[in-house]
Write a structure and sequence with these properties.
The protein contains three helices and five strands; from the N terminus they run βαααββββ. A five-stranded mixed sheet has the order 1-4-5-2-3. It has one domain: Helix Hairpins, CATH 1.10.287. It is of the alpha+beta class and 131 residues long. The structure holds zinc ion.
Length: 131
């Protein structure tokens, strides 16, 4: 498989993971609300699944299959990189695997755990105080 992918697909993979976490939370809420009058969470699920299908359709293979496989294994397939370190397994990512800044956002695979590493352009000044 290709070692990395940049731009729209990288963005879509990150969005898909956010969306999957939303689905998990909504499903949990629906379960909690079962039997009560509040079933809005349950009725939202089909719509969320539609959005998921659309996001998936915008992600080409083999990344789509990779995402599904790694999510099944770890729960979270896409993890951020910080200081060239995978925040999934804390393995150091070789400098040679770091995408060029103009290719970001990009996704590469961690050699340690196989998760999908999300690279975003770093903000050199005070990166921890931007959010
Ligand atoms: Zn890793």
């Amino acid at each position: 498989m290709p070692r990395s992918i940049a731009g729209r697909t990288a963005q879509r993979l990150a969005e898909l993971q956010d969306h999957d976490l939303l689905i998990v939370r909504t499903a949990a809420n629906a379960t909690a609300a079962r039997g009560s009058a509040t079933r809005s969470a349950e009725s939202a699920l089909p719509e969320l699944q539609d959005v998921r299908a659309k996001l998936l359709s915008e992600i080409p293979e083999p990344w789509r299959a990779q995402y599904e496989r790694i999510t099944a294994r770890y729960g979270r397939a896409v993890v951020p990189v910080r200081d060239q370190t995978c925040l999934g397994c804390y393995a150091r990512v070789p400098a040679g695997l770091m995408p060029h800044a103009h290719d970001m956002p990009a996704i590469t695979r961690c050699e340690g755990c196989g998760r999908l590493l999300l690279w975003v352009p770093s903000t050199p000044s005070r990166p921890d105080r931007t959010r």
